[in-house]
Amino acid sequence: MAEPAPAEAAPWTATVLTLFPEMFPGPLGHSLGGKALADGLWALGTVDIRAYARDRHRTVDDTPYGGGAGMVMRPDVVSDAIAAHHAPDSGRRLLYLSPRGRRLGQPLVRELAAGPGVTLVCGRYEGLDQRAIDAWSERGGLEEVSIGDVVLSGGEPAALVLLDAVVRLLPGVTGKTESLDNDSFEDGLLEYPHYTRPRDWDGRPVPDVLISGHHARVAQWRREQAEAITRARRPDLWAAYAESEG
Ligand code: ADE
């Protein structure tokens, strides 16, 4: 895929450094995000890390010092790829997807959406040589980000998750901004349940209050539902919410 347009005209831009550029845009080429990509509301560039290999075998990884299973991505190769595609003064955040990173959540997603874009580094195998992580943390503000306490086979699916979450918040991507305000986590609660036609399905009626036409009662019911679901399923969120509500 081609690199995105020059900075002055650039929309929110993601540059993904990966050994598998063909995985992108993948699911991001569909639905809301895909239409927004086609419409130029955001831009995506991929960089094949292998292009920065130094030998004729195009080696990007090697066995770990100290022994053990798996392969480690070489710091020289990955660092050259980052240096060629990430300008530390661009204002774009440099993120390395890793299960050891700061946990991705809606606050970080909102921060990223408010900025000019991101450079994402995807690791494979056992991950990246620690020296490349250290060097770019010092030099370019690299941050490690995890999408949750699961181990994926590489950073690419995590990058897709992160980008999906950010892109839907970009101006013009999601139709009604009201639907964003109601999202789970936006007010510290999980979202209330939704219903549509038919009004009776399989012996299960839609709750009466939703048919009442009383906006205030609907809003109150939805808040109660959101609170009950959050309390039952996510004691951690509930504790933080209860504290913030005083
Ligand atoms: N790479 C492998 N597992 C990951 C995770 N949970 N989050 C981000 N990147 C990863």
Automatic annotation (TrEMBL):
<keyword id="KW-0819">tRNA processing</keyword>
<dbReference type="GO" id="GO:0002939">
    <property type="term" value="P:tRNA N1-guanine methylation"/>
</dbReference>
<keyword id="KW-0963">Cytoplasm</keyword>
<comment type="function">
    <text>Specifically methylates guanosine-37 in various tRNAs.</text>
</comment>
<comment type="subunit">
    <text>Homodimer.</text>
</comment>
<dbReference type="GO" id="GO:0005829">
    <property type="term" value="C:cytosol"/>
</dbReference>
<keyword id="KW-0949">S-adenosyl-L-methionine</keyword>
<dbReference type="InterPro" id="IPR029028">
    <property type="entry name" value="Alpha/beta_knot_MTases"/>
</dbReference>
<dbReference type="Pfam" id="PF01746">
    <property type="entry name" value="tRNA_m1G_MT"/>
</dbReference>
<comment type="similarity">
    <text>Belongs to the RNA methyltransferase TrmD family.</text>
</comment>
<dbReference type="InterPro" id="IPR002649">
    <property type="entry name" value="tRNA_m1G_MeTrfase_TrmD"/>
</dbReference>
<dbReference type="InterPro" id="IPR016009">
    <property type="entry name" value="tRNA_MeTrfase_TRMD/TRM10"/>
</dbReference>
<protein>
    <recommendedName>
        <fullName>tRNA (guanine-N(1)-)-methyltransferase</fullName>
        <ecNumber>2.1.1.228</ecNumber>
    </recommendedName>
</protein>
<dbReference type="InterPro" id="IPR023148">
    <property type="entry name" value="tRNA_m1G_MeTrfase_C_sf"/>
</dbReference>
<feature type="domain" description="tRNA methyltransferase TRMD/TRM10-type">
    <location>
        <begin position="15"/>
        <end position="239"/>
    </location>
</feature>
<dbReference type="InterPro" id="IPR029026">
    <property type="entry name" value="tRNA_m1G_MTases_N"/>
</dbReference>
<keyword id="KW-0808">Transferase</keyword>
<feature type="binding site">
    <location>
        <position position="123"/>
    </location>
    <ligand>
        <name>S-adenosyl-L-methionine</name>
    </ligand>
</feature>
<keyword id="KW-0489">Methyltransferase</keyword>
<dbReference type="GO" id="GO:0052906">
    <property type="term" value="F:tRNA (guanine(37)-N1)-methyltransferase activity"/>
</dbReference>
